[in-house]
Amino acid sequence: MKLINQLYKFATLLAKKRSIFLIGCFFILLSLSSLNFNGTPEYKESTLQNQINIAKISINDYPEINQDSKQVIIVKRNDSLISILNRANINRESIKKLIRAKNSKLLTKIKIGEKFIIKSNMSGDLKELIYQKQLTKGVEVKLLNAEYLVKPYKRETEIMPIYKKVVIEESLYVDGLKAKIPDSVIMDMAYIYGWDIDFTYDLRPGDSYSLIYEEILLDGERIKNGDILIAKFYFQGKELIATRFDQENGKSEYFSPNGDNMKKAFLRSPVNFSYISSRYNLKRKHPILYKIKAHTGVDYAAAKGSPVIATGDGTISYSSLKGGYGNLVEIKHSEDYATRYAHLNKIHKRASLGKKVKQGEVIGYVGKTGMATGYHLHYEFHVNGRHTNPLTVKFPNAKPVEKNELKNYTLNFLSRKKMIDNYEKLESRNEEI
Ligand SMILES: [Zn+2]
Q1: How far does the centroid of ligand 1 lie from the alpha carbon of residue 276, in Å?
Q2: pLDDT tens digits, residue range 152-196?
Q3: CA 427 to ligand 1 center in whole angstroms
Q4: Can you say whether residue 82 is alpha, beta or left, with left for phi > 0 and alpha for psi between -120 and 50 degrees?
Q5: Is 405 in contact with 247 (CB distance < 8 Å)?
Q6: For residue 252, how far is its CA from the centre of ligand 1 (angstroms)?
Q7: Cα of 215 to ligand 1 centre, how many Å?
Q8: Which end of the chain has the lower number of beta carbons within 10 A, N or C?
Q9: Which domains does the chain have, with CATH numbers?
């Protein structure tokens, strides 16, 4: 009978796995019938033993049945605490008990996308719950003396500065990735320097950049990339330093050592550098573009359909076909400044005549309409109605560091400058060894 009991227990353990439960019932019926109708217990015992051996094999197939299970549930539209607990198969007693628990209100203001980690046993008793509002904070529920203890939690993150130096052979982007700089950080570099450097035309092999950016760690693992603290760009024999500064108005921006904003009224390039055609070869001898190209702008070879962005805020003053230009968009930025984007495959609907566009917004897509032999963007920059070389024109700066914050800024800049200089020294010493 002991063995029958064991079998019975096993069968109930597997109650949730219905088919196995049925097999279990079959075993029990079989053993009961053999007990009733067969007179030799030794024989029955050995038959039961065989069945138990089979049972042992199948129990190994379901190791989780002896453990609490853990479920991760992401909050969806119209979810409530109760719908989530129901989805996790938590039983009614546990749900009632949790709702009655002190502080349970902390669990009710849930938002789409938040995460619940729910631990329960086979009978649906809630054992533990973590309601993750953000990566580092939320509310946790634990069992203490058969009652639920609900309280907020916060996990501490660590910030680690990372130094990298990249010598450019192919491009800012490709060589940055090779140096294992995260994509998002390279994009930030492009943003910070995109006002001063045209990554297609200004860079040569051997130019380089170095930077310190933050990595945010939770329990020793990187959870996200923080901001660039300071960066240096060396190109054409020049050095451009940019430092991040948290201003009193709450905005963080990048400034040059003397406090000028890195941001300008215009972006250097109307095509994002990552779309620039690979046909362009950095290793070729750099032409003095403006003289060699007798025409009145700069050409950016890029794949068909690459997005073209407004280099500055303004109003669309032309948006249609225009002879050799093909599909042309012209933006009037002020009384003095205008830009033109030609040969577009398609014009974006936000760039129709008279509409206002913001810097960085897509106004069209690279094509070869009009007089163009291959896919490229022809870009012109006009100052006071005259063609001006967009590669060399001086752009007005955005707001510099406020006068009353300048002292603070300078201290901040100097300490970060020291930091990056030290890394560079260390690195060159390592290279010597
Ligand atoms: Zn052109």
Answers
A1: 15
A2: 999 889 999 999 999 999 888 889 999 999 989 998 998 899 888
A3: 43
A4: alpha
A5: yes
A6: 37
A7: 42
A8: C
A9: 2-42 (no CATH), 68-154 (3.10.450.350), 158-255 (3.10.450.350), 275-388 (2.70.70.10)
